C-alpha cells in the first residue's frame, strides 16, 4: 500500500479572505449605523412637528371656545409655549371676509431643530358674533 499524504491541503480561510470579509462586514455595519442615525433624527423632527400642530390646535380651540370676537378684544396675536422642553413661537392673523362676520384666521408656529428654523402654518374660518344662532322654535315647524 502506497499512501501519499498531502500536507499542502488548506483548511479554513486565508488571511486575505478573512481581511476582505471583515472589510465588507465593517462597511455594512457603518451603513446600518448611518441609516439608524438618520431615522432617529427624522423621528425627533416628526415628534416636534406633531407638537407644533398641537399648538395650532390648542390655539384654534381656545379661539373657538372664547368666541373670535372676544378673543380679538384681548389683542393677543402672538406668544410662546414650551412643550416637553421645546419652545414654540406662534403668531395669529385675523383677516375679515366680505360676508357677514366671517374671519379667516392664519396661524404660524416656529421652532428650532438642530440649529435650523422650522415652521408650519394653518388657516381656518370662524364666524363672529353677528352670526351666532339663537335658541327657540323654528318658524313653520310643527
Question: Which tags fit this structure?
Answer:
142 residues, 4-stranded antiparallel beta sheet, disordered C terminus, 29% strand, 42% helix, alpha+beta
What does this structure look like?
The protein is an alpha+beta fold. The protein has one domain. 42% of the residues lie in helices and 29% in strands. The protein contains two helices and four strands, in the order H-H-E-E-E-E. The protein has helices at residues 15-66, 68-74; strands at 78-83, 86-96, 102-113, 116-127. A four-stranded antiparallel β-sheet has the order 1-2-3-4, covered by helices on one side. A hairpin with a 2-residue loop joins strand 3 and strand 4. Helix 1 crosses helix 2. The protein is rod-shaped and about 110 Å long.
Give the helices and strands as they follow along the chain.
HHEEEE
Number of domains: 1
Beta-strand content: 25-35%
How many separate helices?
A: 2
Nutshell version of this structure?
This protein has helices at residues 15-66, 68-74; strands spanning 78-83, 86-96, 102-113, 116-127. With 142 residues, the chain is of the alpha+beta class. It has one domain (15-131).
Q: How do the strands and helices of this protein lay out in sequence?
A:
Blueprint lengths: L14 H52 L1 H7 L3 E6 L2 E11 L5 E12 L2 E12 L15
Helix pairs in contact: 1-2
Amino acid at each position: 500500500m502506497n499512501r501519499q499524504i498531502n500536507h499542502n491541503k488548506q483548511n479554513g480561510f486565508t488571511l486575505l479572505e478573512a481581511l476582505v470579509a471583515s472589510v465588507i462586514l465593517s462597511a455594512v455595519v457603518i451603513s446600518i449605523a448611518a441609516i439608524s442615525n438618520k431615522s432617529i433624527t427624522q423621528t425627533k423632527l416628526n415628534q416636534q412637528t406633531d407638537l407644533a400642530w398641537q399648538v395650532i390646535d390648542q390655539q384654534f380651540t381656545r379661539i373657538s371656545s372664547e368666541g373670535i370676537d372676544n378673543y380679538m378684544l384681548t389683542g393677543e396675536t402672538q406668544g410662546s409655549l414650551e412643550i416637553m422642553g421645546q419652545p414654540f413661537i406662534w403668531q395669529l392673523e385675523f383677516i375679515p371676509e366680505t360676508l357677514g362676520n366671517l374671519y379667516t384666521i392664519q396661524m404660524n408656529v416656529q421652532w428650532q431643530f438642530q440649529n435650523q428654523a422650522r415652521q408650519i402654518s394653518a388657516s381656518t374660518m370662524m364666524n363672529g358674533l353677528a352670526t351666532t344662532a339663537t335658541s327657540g322654535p323654528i318658524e313653520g315647524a310643527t
